[in-house]
Amino acid sequence: MNTRRASTLYYRTAETFALWIGLILLWQLLTSLFHAFFFPTPLEIAKELGRNWLSITALQHNALPSLFRIISGWGLASVFGIMLGVAIGLVRGLDAYFEPIIHFGRAISPPAALPIFLILFGIGDSMKILFIAFGVIWPILLNTVKGVQSIDSTQLNSARVYGIRGIRHLFYVILPAASPEIFAGLRISLALAFIMMVISEMISASGGIGYMILQSQANFDILSMWAGMVILGIGGILFNSLFLALEAYFLRWQRGSAGISA
């Protein structure tokens, strides 16, 4: 069974890699034929990445600040979203009071709320981190509430019978049972965190990937602008791959349960 799974993973990886190579080659062919100013070739973008985006100075001034902000904002939203979601999901009737507030905050467009964050927290990293956290907390919160409320009552009753209460009940029963829904919310919020990070860095920033993309646009440096967008895309792929690996590790019990039930 493990050999079959490894073989399937190998072929899927090879197919995905081949698809990416094909798309890049098609992009190279089309942009080379039409010579459009606003659409540089992948080869030109790769040279720009090596020249101005992947140097030590550029990484320190742009990539590392963006990495710090996105991890801090997403991490802050994850902690508070899970904590509040567990509380709302466990306390009967509490969701009726919080649901209007949650949907109110969720409906506010983060770019529309950005001036409020600038007024309250200034233009430093704290504003950007809190802005990212505000924009991404809602999927985590809603999925956590849903996951906790959907726990089978048999599991809860069995835990009480065996004397599992308090903190042990939270960490050994509630969170593991709700973890598939929680991880789904975390994955959605991670993609949103990249968007929030770019938006926050395009306003009153002196460094970061979003800042550099905006500066490239203002200077009509199309090649550098495309290189910045490629950096964002590569970062998104790497973060998503790392998250999927962590999710597979923490939810490995779920695959085992599915195999036993099958």
Task: Write a structural description.
- The chain has 262 residues and is mainly alpha-helical.
- The protein has two domains: 1-35; 39-261, MetI-like (MetI-like fold).
- Helices cover 86% and strands 0% of the residues.
- It has eleven helices and no strands.
- It has helices at residues 2-34, 42-53, 56-90, 94-107, 110-121, 125-149, 153-161, 166-201, 209-218, 222-250, 252-261.
- Helix 3 crosses helix 8.
- The longest helix has 36 residues, at 166-201.
- The two termini are 14 Å apart.
- Residues 258-262 have low confidence and may be disordered.
- Belongs to the binding-protein-dependent transport system permease family.
- It is found in: Cell membrane.
- The chain crosses the membrane at residues 20-39, 71-91, 112-141, 190-214, 226-246.
- Residues 67-243 form the ABC transmembrane type-1 domain.
- It comes from Ferviditalea candida.
> What fold name stands as the CATH topology of the largest domain?
MetI-like fold
Supply the helix-strand structural class. Answer: mainly alpha
Mean pLDDT: 83
**Rough shape?**
globular
Q: State the share of residues found in helices, binned by percent.
A: over 70%
The tally of beta strands, per DSSP, is 0
Overall tally of domains: 2
Q: Topology as H/E string?
A: HHHHHHHHHHH
- Straight-line distance between termini: 14 Å
Tell me the CATH architecture of the largest domain. Orthogonal Bundle
Number of helices: 11
